[in-house]
Amino acid sequence: MDTNTPPPKPSLPAGLSLIEKAQELRWTLQLSVGVLFADLVLVHYTGQNISHWSTSADQLLSNSGFLVTSLLMFGVLMSIVMPLSAELCRQIGWQLIIHVPWPDWMRTTRDYQRPSGKVYPDELHRHALEKSDKLLLDIYTMHNQKQAEGNAAKLATAQAIFSVVVLSAANYFADCFGMQGATLLQSAATTLGEYGELIGTVGGLFAFAAVKAAWYPAGSSDWIYYPPLYREIMEERKKNH
Predict the structure, then answer these.
(1) Burial per residue of 43-68, b for 16 or more beta-carbon CB atoms within 10 angstroms, e otherwise
(2) 219 contacts 111 by C-beta, under 8 angstroms
(3) 97/215 Cα distance (integer angstroms)
């Protein structure tokens, strides 16, 4: 053994997985929703937004009824109103996608071409049952669990983005609800001037694109890498043709 070989350098752990990153993003989005909601509540009760919250507003915190009511409203908003609203919008959007004759340049096509060495999950499942292969059944089960977790993470992130968009709109157009005083986003828009509208527009477009990608994914089909079954399928196709 070469004693002159330097010891391996310490390295940081691998980066966060996609699901962990999605959870971190959701935490940030949920915090944003909380801030926007608290800002609306403060403007409604004090006429000042959260950026001007000082010790003069501490009397609100001493009012336990105010705190309980606000927390209850926020809980109902995030656990019932927003999920139902998001799902309603998702279903309406899906109906528009499948029934409206969109131009070809706006349509996305799924790639059904079989990649080398890969098979459909149902093909692997059927093969595993025919061979009574527990290992293949485990691979199929783990793949489905991973897909379900990924889809759930995407939907949860999309719902969080949807909530931010709705609360941002309510915060920016608070005047329409009869609120007196400038909200956080209204103050930001006034400070930024014409750049505020540009930032808001770009942010809205990015949010729309992110929600659309999560609600209506379009891309390659779902595959599992298993070359032995892939070769069997290809050989069977050659015989039939």
Answers:
(1) beebebbbebeeeeeeeeeeeeeeee
(2) yes
(3) 12
Q: Which two tokens stand for residue 168?
A: 């941002």
Unique residue bearing structure tokens 């340049």: 105
Residue 122 neighbours by CB under 8 Å, 6+ apart: none
CA terminus-to-terminus distance, the chain: 58
Please state the pTM of the whole predicted model. Answer: 0.75
Q: Which residue, chain included where needed, has tokens 């528009």?
A: 96
- Sequence-ordered strand ranges (E) for 55-179: 118-119
Spatial contact of 22 and 154, defined as CB atoms under 8 Å apart: yes
Nearest to 153 by CA among 17, 32, 13: 17
pLDDT (tens digit per residue) in 24-52: 788 889 899 999 999 998 888 878 888 87
Q: How far apart are CA 102 and CA 184, in angstroms?
A: 38
pLDDT in tens, 111-159: 567 888 889 999 999 999 998 999 999 999 999 999 888 888 888 889 9
Helix (H), strand (E), coil (C) string for 179-192: CCCCCHHHHHHHHH
**Residues 108, 123: contact at Cβ < 8 Å?**
no
Burial category of 230 from C-beta neighbours within 10 Å (exposed 0-12, middle 13-18, buried 19 and up): buried
Q: Using 50, 70 and 90 to split pLDDT, how confident is the model at 178?
A: confident
